[in-house]
Amino acid sequence: MPILQIQEATKVYEGKVTKRALNQLSFEVEKGEFIAIMGPSGSGKTTLLNMVSMIDTLTSGEIIFNGMKPQKLNSEELAFFRRRQLGFIFQDFNLLPTLTVEENIILPLTLDEQPIAVMEERLHHLSELLELTSILVKRPNEISGGQAQRTAIARALIHKPMLVLADEPTGNLDSNASREVLELLGKMNQDNNTTILMVTHDPIAASYCDRVIFIKDGEFFNEIYKDDRRQTFFQRILNVLSLLGGHVGDFSSIRLP
Ligand SMILES: Nc1ncnc2c1ncn2[C@@H]1O[C@H](COP(=O)(O)OP(=O)(O)O)[C@@H](O)[C@H]1O
Ligand SMILES: [Mg+2]
């Protein structure tokens, strides 16, 4: 069974002008997939993540997790579901400034009242893996952007969520830090079979994924699967982006690292 089923998802924002941000969008995600969502600015990518994370509700259509419909949960069950099953990574890291790196990372377990021994074991494991051990006592304003995003990744993974949602996670990072973060996400995906849904406008970032889903005007536009070589996958991503319109940027002559 797919871990996530999006069925004819439609979201209409009512206001002075009515905006159809998602229109009959359907796709499925298998457990362990690392998926990029691409599309021009305003095409509904963030809206889609907000619907998947149940921050907001669909106008029509359905989102099903592991065969279960979170829309049917009451608000307390929903809060529990989100805390247990989802991990979030944002462009601006969203770390709490008054907490240390360590406190930020274990926050999902603290909120879930997990035993200290469990917290320490997972904290140790992730901080080794993400090379955060030496900065655990620092606060977010004392660390680099790359370190902040690695901290956010640790926080998103510490409770072993079913699904990680990332909205432009490399949007504020330089190319070295971006590569590090993407390689780490790829490693988490490979080693732990973590399912990741990542919105990105960067074809290089997308080339780390198993599949890229393109949306346009809130509708499914195309999807492509990776092949043996990242360079050719990258070129195929560029080809679809050029069909999609919007800004593609000057990526066309890049050799991937
Ligand atoms: N809360 C909202 N109220 C009204 N319109 C919104 C709201 N959120 C997003 N939109 C509109 O929906 C469309 C899709 O937005 P969004 O999902 O943020 O796109 P993307 O993340 O792909 O740039 C845009 O036209 C945007 O202006
Ligand atoms: Mg967005």
UniProtKB/TrEMBL annotation:
Residues 4-242 form the ABC transporter domain. The keyword Magnesium does not apply. It comes from the Bacteria. SMART domains: AAA. GO terms for molecular function: ATP binding. Keywords: ATP-binding, Nucleotide-binding, Transport. Pfam families: ABC_tran. InterPro entries: AAA+_ATPase, ABC_transporter-like_ATP-bd, MacB-like_ATP-bd, P-loop_NTPase. Belongs to the ABC transporter superfamily. This is ABC transporter ATP-binding protein. The lineage of its organism: Bacteria, Bacillati, Bacillota, Bacilli, Bacillales.
